[in-house]
Amino acid sequence: MFFHNINPVLLEIGPLQIRYYGLFWAAGFILAYFLIAYLAKKKELKLEKDDVSDLLVYEIVGVVLGARLAYVFIYNPLFYLQNPSEIIALWHGGLSFHGGLLGAAAAGYMFCKKKKIEFYDLADIIVVPAALALALGRLGNFTNAELYGRLADVPWCIDYSKSQYADVPAGCRHPSQIYASIKNLAIFAVLWLIKGKNLPKGFMFWSFITLYGLFRAIVEIFRQPDEQIGFIFSYFTMGQLLSFMLFCIGAYMLISLKRKVQHTPE
Questions:
Q1: Rounded to two decimals, what is the model's pTM?
Q2: 61: left (phi over 0), alpha (psi -120 to 50) or beta
Q3: H/E element holding 38?
Q4: What's residue 156's pLDDT?
Q5: pLDDT digits (tens, 9 = 90+) for 119-165
Q6: Distance from C-alpha of 176 to C-alpha of 183, rounded to nearest angstrom
Q7: Predicted confidence band at 66 (pLDDT cuts at 50, 70, 90)?
Q8: Which end of the chain is more exposed for a tag (fewer CB within 10 A), N or C?
Q9: Would the pLDDT of 53 be above 60?
């Protein structure tokens, strides 16, 4: 058993707080900048350094808007219906990966239309650093003692309830944030290994969707469900159901791409 007593604030200067969570995400976006530039050059995609910076701005806005709106309308609609001013209170937490994914895809599509780039050419590149950034982001969740796991008796379980910085029910729990980080690192490793292969356009993108959906559905088995929703059908979490949908869509698209290649005349 381990005890979680990490102060999520690295540095505090007056009203300004520098949190590990923000630093992890900042590191993720910095790595994304260099990886996108590197992969674009390898793929001979016409993206200048300024274009990469513009792309990241598009993606940050798309991710935040999509993640927030999905959380508001899917995870806690009654609360925000009664407290509409809280919708813009991002500092109180409440973001959904699945909404963020839709927002990122929409932002990427808009960027591609502006720069006259094929969507899949760019999407196949972005998902590689995206998986790495997500791995770092989950470490930020761990420092915040949020998105914690279900009660467990495994040797590596963590008791968050002793922390003076978090409000978590008593008991030793699965470190589900660490599981999620490892899951995202595994996806990054797979994408990195296949990035240089002769694959049809969109294969990398839909591989990311498929792998994320599958692994996230598995990790959700160990994660405590959202308090305001609880279990759906007495067993499943909302994140699990949404992730299974992602897996099904991704698998279907991969099969479709394979069939398309097989039926394309040489």
A1: 0.92
A2: alpha
A3: helix 20-42
A4: 95
A5: 999 999 999 999 999 999 999 999 999 899 999 999 999 999 988 88
A6: 10
A7: very high
A8: C
A9: yes
For residues 103 and 65, the answer to whether their CB atoms sit within 8 Å is yes
CA angle centred on 131, ends 156 and 243, rounded to 5°: 75
The residue behind tokens 């949190």 is 19
Q: In 3D, which of 237, 209, 243, 244 has the Cα closest to residue 75?
A: 237
Residue 242 CA to residue 46 CA, distance in Å, equals 35
What the block records as the tokens of 232 is 């759906």
Q: How many CB atoms lie within 10 A of CB 105?
A: 19
Query: What does the alpha-carbon distance between residue 30 and residue 37 come to, in Å, rounded to a whole number?
Result: 11
Enter the DSSP assignment of 149: B
DSSP secondary structure letters along 188-208: HHHHHHHTTS---TTHHHHHH
